[in-house]
Amino acid sequence: MFNSTTKIASALVGLFALAAPAFAQAPALTDLEAAGKVVFDEEIGCIECHGELAKGDVGIGPNIQGQTVEYIHLQMQTNEMMMFDATDQQLTAVEAYLAYLKANNP
Predict the structure, then answer these.
(1) pLDDT for the residue 65
(2) Helix axes 88-104, 69-78, angle to 10 degrees
(3) What is the pTM of this model?
(4) Sign of the CA dihedral 74, 79, 82, 87?
(5) Is residue 13 part of a domain?
(6) What share of the chain is helix, strand, coil (3-state, %, to 5)?
(7) Number of domain units in the chain
């Protein structure tokens, strides 16, 4: 009995060890990425159409993780749904935040 209990305990420890990387936290946001999150979530409100992780999972806007300032600027000029006023500083911050999301939310 002791032997099978030990084997089960060892197996469970091994399973938890394998699962640990899945529970690892993403690195902290840099100042620029944090500023981009504020723009994304609150100032412009990109989150409303593109979702919390910018994956386009709310059914309105597409996945924009990793998109560049140029792409965002072009969309804001040509896409009627995205005609917001944003400074270059805000767009640079959003670009950094989108890069962070892509790197940390596969």
Answers:
(1) 95
(2) 120
(3) 0.74
(4) positive
(5) no
(6) 65, 0, 35
(7) 1
Mean pLDDT by 10 residues, the chain (106 residues): 54 49 76 97 95 94 94 89 89 95 89
**Alpha-carbon Rg of the chain, whole angstroms?**
20
Task: Confirm whether 91 is domain-assigned.
Answer: yes
Please name the residue that has the structure tokens 């504020």.
38
Is 1 inside a domain boundary? no
What are the structure tokens assigned to 72, written together? 């965002």
CATH number reported for the structural domain that contains residue 99 in this entry: 1.10.760.10
Instruction: Identify residue 60 by its one-letter amino acid code.
Output: I
Which amino acid is located at 50 in the chain? H
CA distances from 55 to 81, 97, 104 (A): 17, 13, 12
Range of the domain at 90: 27-104
Kindly list the distances between the CA atom of residue 101 and the CA atoms of 1, 10, 32, 44, 76, in Å, as whole numbers in the listed order. 49, 36, 13, 17, 20
Q: What is the pLDDT of residue 49?
A: 94
Six-digit token pair at 20? 């640990």
Domain-embedded: residue 2: no
